[in-house]
Amino acid sequence: MKKKLALIAVAAAALCATSMPVFAGDDLITIGFAQVGHESDWRTASTQSAQAVFSAENGYDLQFVDCDNDSAAQLEAVRGFIEQDVDYIIIDPIVATGWDTVLTECEDAGIPVIVIDRTIDDSDKYVSWVGSNFLTEGIACGEWLKAYAEAKGIEEINALVIEGTNGSSAQIGRTDGFNQVAEENGWNILDSQDGDFTQNGGQEVMESYCKSYEGQFNVVICQNDNEAFGAMDAMKAAGVSYGPNGDVVLVSFDGNRPAMESLLAGDLTAVFECNPLAAPDVEKVIQQLEAGETPEKEIYMVEGWFANEDVVSSITIDGEEQPVTQMTQEVLDARAY
Ligand code: GYE
Predict the structure, then answer these.
(1) What is the four-CA torsion angle of 95, 97, 101, 105, rounded to 10 degrees?
(2) Residue 253 CA: which ligand 1 atom is closest?
(3) Which of 208, 284, 302, 323 has the fewest CB atoms within 10 Å around its CB?
């Protein structure tokens, strides 16, 4: 709470016998959250997680700005929070670069910044980052595909990739990770285009792929669930079968409930999870700062790898064996999102 507000609250409380409900808001910690947008199921889960954790009942006043995938609007939102003199700023950076100036402005204003989900790669003027290792997700996808192809006797990989928003760290990490394994194994990546993490984007890219690469591909990698839904519609319309019983191995990243249901139903072949529920960890960071402690600079979310069939039970990444879980109704029911 800001000092000025506190003084007003005290003065006003003195004038008002039933001050508690009216002035309770003055004790709240104000947080400005510059969210990427509303492009996907993952994003909706991320927003809902922040709104649930940073509620008035929990002692917060959350100023939420949906930046609609517009980097200039996101910088403007952060500057607006500086002007409002909020207590903390949370940024989920649409793109990984272009941040140093505005983060310096936050620093000069004495407002701690917490970065969530996507990373900022050209400045370290933030307290903590809470998110996922996108490079590992991309490598996991590649290692799973390698083991799956071997087990299924798929001799040649001809892959089409639908990437996420260009320049976002999620797109960069997932692309680099998958490409790394593809190169090691001499796979053929026919094309890799931006679907902007949306269902429409995924559908449009897949429609053009179906025309340009008719009969030439047997793997489609979508960098999020919603792109995969769009790709399914495009493939259905083009008469291409996908999933564990189809001609095309179809993979997505994220693993929100609708995608996990699709995985169970046998539309998707595998899903590489990215956990959107960062807000509880962000709250821990804020509580540490409130207590004068120094939080960790990097905090990683826990995530797993899932497949429709029980064909590949584990993969090895950086020498560490990691399980691949077969999606069942039981596994689905136990999930939080
Ligand atoms: O994969 C996608 C969302 O940044 C990890 O953004 C996030 C990505 C997520 O739009 O669905």
Answers:
(1) 50
(2) 1
(3) 302
Q: Which residues contact 178 (CB under 8 A, 6 or more apart)?
A: 138, 139, 141, 142, 161, 221
Angle between helices 279-290 and 41-53 (to 10 degrees): 30
Q: Above 50 in pLDDT, residue 63?
A: yes
* Angstrom distances, CA of residue 214 to CA of 50, 159, 236: 43, 12, 13
Query: Structural domains in the chain?
Result: 2-132+275-300 (3.40.50.2300), 134-274+304-333 (3.40.50.2300)
Torsion (CA) 143, 146, 148, 150 in degrees, nearest 10:
-150
Q: What's the gap in Å between 3 CA and the centre of ligand 1?
A: 38
- Interval between CA 43 and ligand 1 midpoint (Å): 6
- Its pTM stands at 0.92
The DSSP call for residue 156 is: -
Percent of the chain at pLDDT above 90?
Answer: 91
Q: Is 274 in the pocket of ligand 1 (CB under 6 A)?
A: yes
**Burial (CB count <10 Å: 0-12, 13-18, 19+), residue 173:** buried
pLDDT at 223 over 80: yes
Q: Whose CA is nearest to atom 8 of ligand 1?
A: 170
Beta bridge partners of 252: 222, 271
Measured CA to CA, the distance from residue 300 to residue 248 in angstroms comes to: 32
